Amino acid sequence: MLRARLAFLFVFLFAIAVGLKIVAIQTIQGEKWRKIAQENLLQYRKVKATRGNIYSDNGSLLATSLPFYKLAIDPQIPDKDVFEEGIDSLSILLARHFKDKTWIEYKRKINDARKQKKQYLVLSRNLINYHTKKQMSEWPIFREGRLKGGVIFEKVDQRFKPFSGLAYRTIGFVNEDNKGAGLEFSFNSHLAGMDGEALFRKIAGGSWKPMNDNSEINPKEGLDIMTTLDVNIQDVAEASLERHLRKHDADYGCLVLMEVQTGHIKAMVNLSKLRNGNYAEIYNYAVGNQGLIEPGSTFKLASVMALFEDSKIQPADSVDTGVGEYEFYDRIMTDTKPGGYGKVTVAESFEKSSNIGISKLVNEHFGLEPKRFYEYLEGFGLTRPIGFQMSGEAIPYIKTSMDKSWSGISLPWMSIGYELKLSPLHILTFYNGVANGGKMIKPVIVKEVRRADKTKERYKIEVIRERLCSDRTLSYVRSMLEGVVENGTARNISNTAYKIAGKTGTAQKVINGKYTKSYYASFAGYFPADQPKYSCIVVIDNPKGYNRYGSDVAAPVFKEVADKVFSADLDLHSPILASANNVADGVFPVIKAGMLDDMRLVCNEIGISNHGEKLNGDEWAAAQVNSNSVSWKERKLNVGLVPDVKGMTLRDAIYILENSGFRVRHEGHGRVVHQSVAAGGKINKGEIIYLTLD
């Protein structure tokens, strides 16, 4: 009995305690919890600013933010008459547009939300564009606006790249955590703008509905950046590099082309092989750590420059390379030519890319004082980052004699581009300095930051080294770089239209600390060699097959891109037109077919009589040579029929064929001598036509 009374007393006291706690919560702590509840229902939330645009060098859009909208409604706002009169028509229009529900389902969805007192209902997950938003604003109920019809168009900016995958990794991205890559990330502080702030109410389902109480802080849209990229050169470079990567089944490749005097990068391509065998831009090898490699023979330029600067050695002096094998301490160095090159000049050693020749000279001259060799590399701007505008720049690695890994073979192997690492962009910057008369300048990929038409910031040319070397040394190495193309390892890309100067490179890859039979093939140089306007580097990783050297793999890409850049840059052609006036007597120039105005101009410039006044200047024509004069015959382009492009330059042929709906593939150089689809037939849009040039 006593136990029962005690139990009852305990329950009674517990009930009193619970009651007192409830009273305390409702009275003493009630205000606190009501405040917390209110704060959880109402909240100032971020309103994203519209991101700035990214432009090419001629103002073409590379990336922009397009406004899209999420369609929602507050079904409590429309009054009864407006709602009942318009709900059927609205539901039919929604069903027709989104095609994800029947109109009955849309009507039920909106009716149910209205009955349940919901204040925010997303009508579709599919975003709509601005044009559609304007149309929907005239639909039943929606036409009453936000305050009377309850329609809510929530703006959502989406990044759009008009040129699709062109320069994809260079343009880059920024994710929700403000992490990313490329220009989007590197210039995020300019592009992002300043976010605004607005009051939102939390509603059922965890969604947030904007209150529109006029307390908003409007966002400030981002600034635009003007890049130096040329979309035409970028397109040509990507197509050429991808074609050669596929040909050699390579793992990845990169290409950078820039203007010599300004440092403006006109193209930057980085292509990686995917699991499905296709190639895409997923990493910037030209700039980042994964592209930091032992450059191989392209580094020999720095070695011979150091030799010329520190000694009286001249290109005509000789060096004995022996039978193709030479022992440095406990390691044997070899040359690619079986049996070796024997006794050659210093220039020939460079042009033929003799490892033994360059290493012997460097070791004999700097072997007792390797620090002096490093000091020259430091003076060439190779030991420190160049301070490129894009984030993620790789830090060069060039060891000194104080390094723990230094050994007796370090200097000989460094002289030919091993036991050190440089990014492709860094190597190109060095070569560009040689092309630029010895002035080494920082590469530029963004030239201006703007708001509308007003320039907010302009990036000027920055000099890394005012003078890389003496005029004597510069003269020597520029002549030797031309010799590589005319007489040496890159003679396969020599031509008569303009001169190329450069150096091939083939470096063995290190895997798990050991050199393997996998290679990096590269070519770095500039053109035209006599008056350099562009410099370029091509690096291809792990090419397969018999031809794996820089001359076979990378140099042809350089030549292909250089040819197309040269043909499109009319400023480079004036010396050719000037020299054409000196045509030898009795030698008649080749004139076949093209745009009439262009051919007339050439004939008039070099003094050839030409006739065909009845033809309009914007017509295409073929030339007929009569003795020492030319007469023009109209070449009609009939809509829907395959045009005849034989005799035309590649540029004219591509212009005509692509405007007719063809996709053009070509091989060879010169003028079109054969087209795979016969002229006069019916055009099939999207068909590939193959052109042979000679």
How far do the termini sit from each other? Answer: 118 Å
Shape annotation:
globular
Cα radius of gyration in angstroms? 35 Å
Strand content: 25-35%
Nearest-integer average pLDDT: 86
- Kindly state the percentage of residues in helix: 25-40%
Q: Catalogue the unreliable spans.
A: 576-586
Summed up, the helix count is 22
Number of strands: 34
- Please state the oligomeric state of the protein chains shown: single chain
For the report, how would you describe the main beta sheet?
Answer: 8 strands, mixed
- The structural class is alpha+beta
Notes on the structure:
This protein has 694 residues and is α+β, with helices and mostly antiparallel strands. Helices cover 33% and strands 25% of the residues. It contains 22 helices and 34 strands. The strands form ten sheets. Strands 2, 3, 4, 5, 6, 11, 22 and 23 form an eight-stranded mixed β-sheet that branches. Strand 16 (325-328) and strand 17 (331-334) form a beta hairpin. The chain is globular. The termini are far apart.
Describe the structure using short key phrases.
694 residues; alpha+beta; 8-stranded mixed β-sheet; 22 helices; 25% strand; globular
Topology:
Elements: H1 2-26, H2 30-41, E1 42-47, E2 54-55, E3 61-73, H3 80-98, H4 103-115, E4 121-122, E5 128-129, H5 130-136, H6 145-149, E6 151-160, H7 168-171, E7 173-174, E8 180-181, H8 182-186, H9 188-191, E9 196-202, E10 208-210, E11 224-227, H10 231-248, E12 252-259, E13 265-273, E14 279-280, H11 300-310, E15 318-320, E16 325-328, E17 331-334, E18 343-345, H12 346-351, H13 355-366, H14 370-379, E19 397-398, H15 410-415, E20 420-421, H16 424-435, E21 440-441, E22 446-451, E23 454-458, E24 463-465, H17 471-486, E25 501-511, E26 514-527, E27 534-541, H18 550-553, H19 555-568, H20 574-580, E28 593-595, H21 596-605, E29 609-611, E30 620-626, E31 629-634, H22 650-659, E32 663-668, E33 672-675, E34 688-693
Parallel strand pairs: 2-11, 29-31, 32-34
Antiparallel strand pairs: 1-9, 2-3, 3-4, 3-5, 3-6, 7-8, 9-10, 11-22, 12-13, 12-27, 13-14, 15-18, 16-17, 19-20, 21-24, 22-23, 25-26, 26-27, 28-30, 30-31, 33-34
